Amino acid sequence: LGAGSLPPITQEEALHILGFQPPFEEIRFGPFTGNTTLMRWFRQINDHFHIKGCSYVLYKPHGKNKTAGETAVGALAKLTRGLKDESMAYIYHCQNHYFCPIGFEATPVKASKAYRGRVLQQEVEYWILIGEPSRKHPTIHCKRWADIVTDLNTQNPEYLDIRHLERGLQHRKTKKVGGNLHCIIAFQRLNWQRFGPWNIPFGTVRQDKQSQTQGQGIAKSESEDNISKKQHGRLGRSFSAGFHQESTWKKSSLRERRNSGYQSYNDYDGDD
Fold first, then answer.
1. pTM of the entire structure?
2. Taking a C-beta distance cutoff of 8 angstroms, is the pair 256, 272 a contact?
3. Which residue has the higher pLDDT, 115 or 259?
C-alpha cells in the first residue's frame, strides 16, 4: 500500500478479476490453493491491470520447487533488503495459512550495544513483522527469524505452527515422510525497459507474460514467447529456467484441479 500509481483494490475486486463469483464466504479455497496458485493469480491480476511483474520462491529448503543452494542467512539478507523496496511484496506459507511479511527489526543481543551506530549481523537477532488477514489473530505478528527457519526446515510428519509456538514441534497424522510445503514467496513489480540479468533473483523464477502497450517499443521477437537464443544466453540461467518452468507450470496447474482434495493434514499438496 502507498506504492505505485494505481489505487489498492479490495479482496472482492481481486476475486472478481480471478473469475470467482459471490457469495465468496462459501468458497473453500483450501482444497485447490497452493503456492503455484498464488503465483498464477498474481500473474492474472498483473495482466488485468497491464502491470509487469514476476513471482518466485525466495526460500523453500525442502520439498518440490525447493531453493537448492539457498541458505537461511542468504534468504534473510534478500528478505530484509526486499522489505525496504517498494517494488517487492512477500507471502509466507505457514501451517494451513498464508500471511504477509511487511517489516523487520534487528535487535542487539547485548543491551550495551542497543545504541551503537553499526552492529555486526552476528550481534543482532532478527524479528520479522507479519501482517495477519485472519480476524482470529492480532493484526501484526512479530516472529523471530530463527523460528521461521525452524518452520521451513521441519519435514513431515513433524511441523511447527509459527502462529502457535507455545505448542512446540507437532506431528501430523500422515504416512508421508519428508518434504515441507511451507515457504516464502516473493512478488516483484518490474520495469521492462530496465530489465536485465541483475534484476532477476536466482532460484525458482517464473516470469509473468507481459501485455504489450503502445509506446513501449518492444519488438515481437523480444517478447517472452519469442525470445531469441542469443538473449537467453545473455540473461543467464535463472531467466531461462523461468521459461522452462512456464511450460511445466501449465501442466501442474491442471494437476492442482484434479488433485483438489484435502490432504490428511489440510495443507494443499499439489505442485508446491
1. 0.71
2. no
3. 115
